[in-house]
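User: tokens in, sequence out, please.
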């Protein structure tokens, strides 16, 4: 969904700063809940993605760009923003960050065993990238968000059964999930609309907005939350494929295997909490208001681990 309507004049301004060919046509791109994406085709038939960050201040975007370039430099399949005049990778207009990205010609990665095997490999390779000192150590949609939602609701008298459950789960999961699991750089949001590919091939990992230093295994089950469920049930074959691809690069430890059920619960609730914040509190009254319920209903379903 596009939050910022970009005019031809504005697109041309950004393209000029990149020193590329003039604009031929522009159309909105699907995907992304917190920014505006447009496919721009140039006179020389080059295609680029014009991105306006609607819900992140420019200083945060600059840091995300720094992290994305770090990953790209270390072999992660992710496109780095184009360099613009002055050696920068974004420009600020109306207090919003604007940038241009290479267009990756492919669809969203499908949920089949061959594709998830390759996604597991790509994720494990990303987990081997050395930590950059500027990467945050807090998972933004995890406990820190849950505690803020509960605190704000208690303050203004808007507690709901979901928030009451979130408060209880915070205490439970903090007790059950070991603090010393292997950790490093994680994506935090490898969902289908953040992975470009085709059956059996991963072309690009996108949108490192939730990047942080956290548990590798938690990141892996977050990917399973996004790709491994169909018709409200976890699909064991898809987990087996994702795990096999991952462990072909980096085997899980015994402690990680033991923690998978609790880590999956944490990942499910993190997505539910973000959806609650986004569609119940931040942007209420849309058709997505109850999207968090889908995740909450997964908590007591059988898992393949």
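Assistant: Sequence out:
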């Amino acid at each position: 969904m596009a939050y910022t309507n970009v005019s031809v004049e504005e697109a041309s301004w950004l393209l000029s700063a990149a020193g590329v060919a003039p604009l031929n046509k522009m159309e909105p791109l699907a995907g992304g809940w917190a920014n505006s994406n447009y496919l721009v085709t140039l006179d020389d038939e080059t295609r680029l993605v014009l991105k306006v960050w609607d819900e992140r201040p420019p200083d945060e975007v600059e840091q995300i760009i720094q992290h994305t370039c770090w990953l790209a430099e270390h072999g992660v399949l992710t496109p780095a923003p184009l360099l613009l005049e002055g050696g920068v990778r974004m420009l600020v207009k109306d207090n919003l960050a604007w940038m241009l990205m290479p267009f990756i010609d492919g669809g969203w990665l499908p949920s089949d065993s061959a594709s998830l095997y390759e996604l597991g490999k790509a994720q494990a390779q990303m987990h081997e990238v050395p930590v950059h000192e500027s990467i945050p150590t807090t998972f933004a949609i995890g406990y820190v968000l849950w505690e803020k939602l509960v605190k704000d609701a208690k303050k203004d008298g808007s507690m709901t059964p979901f928030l009451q459950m979130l408060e209880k789960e915070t205490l439970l999961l903090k007790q059950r999930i070991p603090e010393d699991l292997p950790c490093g750089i994680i994506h935090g949001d490898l969902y289908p609309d953040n992975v470009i590919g085709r059956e059996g091939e991963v072309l690009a990992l996108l949108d490192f907005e939730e990047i942080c230093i956290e548990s590798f295994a938690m990141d892996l089950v977050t990917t399973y939350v996004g790709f491994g469920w169909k018709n409200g049930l976890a699909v064991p074959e898809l987990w087996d494929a994702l795990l096999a691809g991952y462990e072909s690069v980096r085997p899980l430890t015994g402690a990680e295997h033991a923690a998978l059920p609790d880590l999956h619960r944490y990942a499910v609730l993190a997505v539910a909490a973000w959806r609650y914040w986004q569609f119940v509190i931040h942007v209420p009254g849309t058709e997505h208001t109850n999207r968090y319920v889908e995740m909450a209903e997964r908590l007591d379903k059988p898992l393949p681990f």
